[in-house]
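SECTION: protein entry
WANTED: fold as C-alpha cells:
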Amino acid sequence: MKVFLIGLPGCGKSTLGREVAHLLKKPFVDLDDEIVKGEGQSIGQIFSDLGEAQFRNIEKKYLKNWCDHTDDVVLATGGGTPCFLDNMSLINASGLSIFLDTTVSEIASRMMNTELAKRPLFAGQDISTIAGRVQEMRMARIHFYAQARVTLSGDHLNAPSIAEEILALES
C-alpha cells in the first residue's frame, strides 16, 4: 500500500515519513526532493522562474508518476500538493492518505527552531508573523486536507504510533 502524508509546511510529513517508512520497511519519497532532483532547481527557484501555475503542473507530473509506480512507498507531499489540479482525488485513489493535523502554534515553533532558509515563504519573519501566515494557509487548505482517509493530530505524534495505525489499516 502507498501511504501519502499530507499537511501544512512544518507539520512533520518529511521527518515522520522517513521514520515511518523505516519502521514499515518501505521506501520513503519526499515529493519536493524528487522535483528538485528531477528539475535541477530548488522549489523556490522554480516558483520564481516559472510561476506557481507551472510549478503545480510539474508537481502533478511527479505525483502522478509515484501514484502510477507499482511499489509501496511512504510519500511526503508538499504542503500545497493536495490543493491543486485534483491531486487529492489522485492521492486517495492511489493509496492511504494521512493528514498530519498540527496546530499553528506548534508549526510556528518548529519553523523558528529549524532552518528557515529552506522555507522561502517564511524566511526572516518572527514567530507571530509565521503563525499568521500558517493560519491563513490552514484556512485556505483545510477543505483539501479534510479529504484524507485518516486524520492524526501532529503535535505529539511519533513514528511508531503512525506505523501502528497504518499496519492496523492494512490488515
Q: What stands out?
A: The chain has a mean pLDDT of 92. The longest strand covers residues 96-101. DSSP finds eight helices and five strands in the chain.
